[in-house]
Amino acid sequence: MARTFRAAEVEVCQPHGDEPTPSGHVLAVGPDANDPQGIEYLLLYCGSQPSDAGLVGSISIPRHHYDLRDVYDRAGQWIGLADRSLKTTLANLVNRTTEQ
Questions:
Q1: Where are the domains of the chain?
Q2: 22: which of 13, 16, 59, 65 lies 20 to 30 Å off by Cα?
């Protein structure tokens, strides 16, 4: 099932340390609107503020250290597992969007 995220339900976040956010983008955290379990996702948006039209993709936030981080495209379709590097995963999401 595709993931659905609503910009009105997310909170902008500022990562600490080495800035992984690609230039011209903003990170936010929020739930999948269709997930009753309430799993949180790291969401990448194009622009300076989250908007429904600006969603680039998302990464699941594991609840346990052994959970995998799934990556979804802007349509909410699963595209694979996250790279060990958050910066690399976010850059790959941006590249996918510009290639489409």
A1: 7-99
A2: 65
Residues in the chain: 100
pLDDT in tens, the chain (100 residues): 678 889 989 999 876 655 788 989 999 999 998 888 888 999 999 999 999 999 999 999 988 888 889 999 999 999 999 998 999 999 999 998 876 6
For 89, the enclosing helix (H) or strand (E) is helix 86-99
As a whole number of angstroms, the distance between CA 57 and CA 44 comes to 6
Residues with Cβ < 8 Å from 20, sequence gap 6 or more?
A: 27, 85, 86, 87, 90
Bridge partners (DSSP) of residue 78 are 72
The token pair at 94 is 């941006």
Asked if 43 and 58 count as a contact pair (C-beta separation under 8 A), the reply is yes
| Residues 90, 97: Cα–Cα separation, whole Å | 11
